[in-house]
Amino acid sequence: MAELQRPTLCCCRKVLTVPGKSCEGGRSLAHCRLVDVASASNFHSFKLRHFHLDLHLNFAVKRMTGWQVLELTPVQPGVQSLILDTHPSLLIHSVDCKVPGVSGAPDVFMSLTYRVEPFTDYGSSLNISLPAAVNRPHRAFRVTIRYTTTDGPAIWWLDAELTCGQTRPLVFTQGHSVCNRSFFPCFDTPAVKSTYSATVRVPEGVTVLMSASRSAYSKQDRVFQFSMEYPVPAYLVALVAGDLQHADIGPRSRVWAEPCILTCAVSKLGGSVERWLNVAEGLFGPYVWGRYDIVFLPPSFPIVAMENPCLTFIISSILESQEFLLIDVIHEIAHGWFGNAVTNATWEEMWLSEGLATYAQRRITTEAYGEAFTCLETVFRLDALHRQMRLLGDNNPVSKLQAKFEPGVNPSSLMNLFTYEKGFCFVSYLSQLCGDIKRFDSFLRAYIEKFRFTSVIAQDLLDFFLGFFPELKESCVAQREGLEFERWLNGCGPPLCEPDLSAGRALTGPVQHLCDLWGTDTPDPQVIATFDLSSWSTFQTVLFMDRLLDRSPLPQEVMSLLSSYYSALLDGMNAEVQIRWLQIVVRNSFYPDLPRVRSFLHKHTSRMYTVPLYEDLCGGVMKCFAVEVFYQTQARLHPNLRRTLQQILFQSSALNTSTAPSLLVSPASAPSSPTDPPANGTIGLRDVNVSA
Known about the structure:
eight-stranded mixed β-sheet; 20 helices; single chain; five-stranded mixed β-sheet
């Protein structure tokens, strides 16, 4: 007997009576059955229309206190509870409800009962019992949650000593992927988007910024108000507050930073941002977010950059690496279309944001700086991808574009190069299929236009692609042997094909030639001397260093010769170059250059530079040196990074039980977040440095 085909509620909140067909909104049934294992919420049961945050920031006790108002509409009858994502670091004080009166009757206000239950090690569930009065589909009601939150995984309180200026404390939030449930109770899934507003009260001398437009400011009361008029997922709500000043760098862009680094930030970016925005708009259509501002954050910022709408967060450490700064900002600009306007509906398909944004970033750099530059940067990144592939193995499931998360697995822990570079290669393959890159630009503009402000799955993108190019659908390109779309999405291993990068050969050729010279048994000093690294671009130099690193261990006589040629020269280069040389030094146990490692770790306190070096130190014969440097610098490290480095040190045999206590921070200063990025710099922590 055939199974009874029950009506199913789709993403557009219409009832489907025939499973397998599209809903009235034209979306696939796959959306209707969308499951986000990283969310405890019952987001399918409600339409979140808007939410408002009203917060007071207390720097003295590192606490945010206030309330949240959610405007909700049930989308099906009989819903008895509202379940939101939250976190143990967030304390609920009360939950109230306002139900609009019917036929002129007054609004009804009532207190609601609730309970907080365990979910995973990165969050909890807030289960709110709803009165019968709200159990009517399409009838709006409001829920007000009063709460206090402290130092959960989304909220980073920095003492003055950890800021760039070292004069005033600072706080910022980082929501990607599932951290904002410790900032405010929410449907913490990229499948749900809504508008939001906020009122933030702060002490004298503190400036507040958010991923939204500032709508009002009272200097006397120190109250900042913000409004985001376009729907965004919870992870893109962001806040930073501290001693921040700004300078305009274009008609719709300004740089925000602590006073001590503002001039440097402005000089590095100049008028480039407006140029990049114009190129992007010419390729992908209007930039819809109004402003594109950038705030530079202290080295404690846990990633390189984050594409928060209206306000990109970026680590100040990147300022000394001009080419990396350029790429990172352009990547975040690309997210204005791919990731922010159109978002992956689940974290299992993160490539829909990161792969498309990487492709868009490279279209922008090709138009702005030429194909050779873009090919060089792509070769550098694909080298890193294959390096990660060699480490993980061809059959590792994290190399799938459609990664399957088991319940309890933190999506943040699976951030890797595959979402960026394998996703980029698949998008590039789609571009090659249509035969004309300009036609593919037109497709991407149409894709953004159709799905703007929604969350999508891969089926949406591919169905729209085949509909846009009917001749490709007729020729069955989705089933082309060896390059099947299904294999791209669910196959393990490296990309099925890579784009032609021969246009960058004039830049990559000399790099490979020099690597080959150093790879011989007896490198010829006279020939090597003809290569002037000081005339190379940063990406050429880091590509050279990475390929040398791949050849390690090197003979000590080769290391001595390398040091004589390059150590003094590299001292004057940026941190992206220096760290690669220092990793070569450490992995080859080249003691004469060890003082340079110490100096670097004393100067640089960001995660992207410290973790890879400490892992290399502890993986070789320099563990005691690592312990010594950590002891000297730990007071200048953010507690979260300090804990990560302790894990690296304790996992090695460098510390025994008699020395371990001297390196422990007090429990009071240890972070409560269980979601710090994993200590896995050896698989490319620095390489996954474009975006969250």
